[in-house]
Design a protein that fits this description.
With about 400 residues, the chain is α/β, with parallel strands linked by helices. It is built from 16 helices and twelve strands. It folds into two domains: about 260 residues, Aspartate Aminotransferase, domain 2 (3-Layer(aba) Sandwich); about 130 residues, Aspartate Aminotransferase, domain 1 (Alpha-Beta Complex). Helix 8 links the parallel strand 5 and strand 6. The structure holds pyridoxal-5'-phosphate. The site of pyridoxal-5'-phosphate has 14 residues, from helix 4.
Length: about 400
């Protein structure tokens, strides 16, 4: 009945999503069990000693590993095509752990400027406090990457597409430059999801997710994940996790495991809805900039098509009337909710300048295109006719 975990790598994507890494208990349950246990017991003191010396492999404490969390990690690794995965309590815990477990004082990080606000905080403020120097580049400009990576670097961090401006970065070109400079490449693949873009195939070393977004995708829990080689996970991330404790709860891991079963179906529908809505918005007046990677008008449409298999769930746009117009649009929405989450079954819209990116200086916001009239719209799974009607009425004066 059971198939060896490594053999499951040969399964088609749908089978890996539904069945990958399932481990049944002695009760032979159909659905994966939630092991809500912080600790584990040993038959003898000798067994406990050997477990702590890593002489036998077993569960020791749920800050380190837990059976339900392991199922989630192993299934996501199968979907991503990664050797190993460690789940985290949130996407930010994953981003921080991936960078902090690798970098030391005196080392150098090169990051794209267009980042989610908290990622920007880690790179621009937190890591420099511990003696790590961060140099930012405009991610779409390969010449800036070339210049920054013409001297030695220890890590590169990027988001593609970026939050909220949907800037695309040529992941393969940046990986090639980074590796020549001696840097490890960490890609935040949240907007692309594990379904639409495979950073490892472009040379990335580490892929991070906020599982809160599409992987749960139903607004229930926070979670995150770091995927990388066995060596990186064993030597760098595992000791960091074990001793600093950003671990995912078994209950949240179970919710996310269930989310993985339908991830592909949901992401495909998100993309269909987002493209149809973006096309409908192209015809509307009062929009000075409309960004969606699958629209021919996106400045990096060709790169998007080369790197991704569909455009994702997020549309970003700028309204001519600035903050007043953006607020008026948000307040007129009847179906779409005002919320700063994304990748949810429910369509959600927000004003990044006053929410997710409010801590950036006005100059830094302007540099990445987050103007006062800029709105981010995460397109959900509702009926597309209803969504077009809602957005269209909210755009009207
Ligand atoms: C690109 C990106 N990375 C990381 C995160 C952080 O994820 P979490 O909210 O699960 O900590 C977010 C959240 O919005 C995000 O958009």
């Amino acid at each position: 009945m059971t198939t060896d975990y490594q053999d499951q790598r040969k399964w088609g994507l749908e089978t890996r999503m539904v069945r990958g890494a399932t481990e049944r208990s002695q009760f032979d349950e159909t659905n994966e069990a939630i092991f809500l246990s912080s600790g584990y017991v040993y038959k003898t003191a000798e067994e406990a000693e050997k477990s702590f010396k890593n002489e036998i492999e077993r569960y020791v404490y749920s800050r380190f590993r837990n059976p339900t969390v392991s199922m989630f990690e192993k299934r996501l690794a199968l979907i991503e095509g990664a050797e190993e995965c460690r789940a985290m309590a949130s996407g930010m815990a994953a981003v921080f752990a991936a960078l902090a477990c690798h970098l030391s004082a005196g080392q150098r990080l090169v990051a794209s400027r267009a980042l989610f606000g908290s990622c920007q905080y880690i790179c621009a403020e937190l890591l420099p406090r511990f003696g790590i120097k961060t140099d930012f580049v405009d991610g779409a400009d390969l010449k800036q990457w070339q210049a920054a990576l013409s001297k030695p670097a220890d890590a590169v961090f990027l988001e593609s597409p970026s939050n909220p401006g949907l800037e695309m970065i040529d992941v393969k070109a940046v990986c090639d430059l980074a590796h020549k400079a001696g840097a490890l490449v960490v890609v935040d693949n949240v907007f692309a999801t594990p379904i639409l873009q495979k950073p490892f195939t472009f040379g990335a070393d580490v892929v991070v997710y906020s599982a809160t977004k599409h992987i749960d995708g139903q607004g229930r829990c926070l979670g995150g994940a770091v995927l990388a080689s066995k060596q990186f996970i064993t030597e760098k991330l595992t000791p960091f996790m074990r001793h600093t404790g950003p671990s995912l709860s078994p209950f949240n891991a179970w919710v996310l495991l269930k989310g993985l079963e339908t991830l592909d179906l949901r992401v495909q529908r998100h993309c269909e809805n987002a493209l149809a809505l973006a096309r409908a918005m192209e015809k509307q007046e009062g929009i000075t900039r409309l960004l969606y990677p699958w629209l021919e008008s996106h400045p990096q449409h060709k790169l998007a098509k080369a790197q991704m298999t569909a455009g994702g769930s997020v549309i970003a746009f700028e309204l001519a009337g600035g903050k007043a117009a953006a607020f008026s649009f948000l307040n007129k929405l009847k179906i779409v909710d005002i919320s700063n989450n994304l990748g949810d079954a429910k369509s959600l819209a927000c004003h990044p300048a006053t929410t997710t990116h409010q801590r950036l200086s006005p100059e830094d916001r302007a540099h990445v295109g987050i103007t006062d009239g800029f709105v981010r719209l995460s397109v959900g799974l509702e009926n597309i006719g209803d969504l077009i009607a809602d957005v269209t009425q909210a755009l009207r004066d």
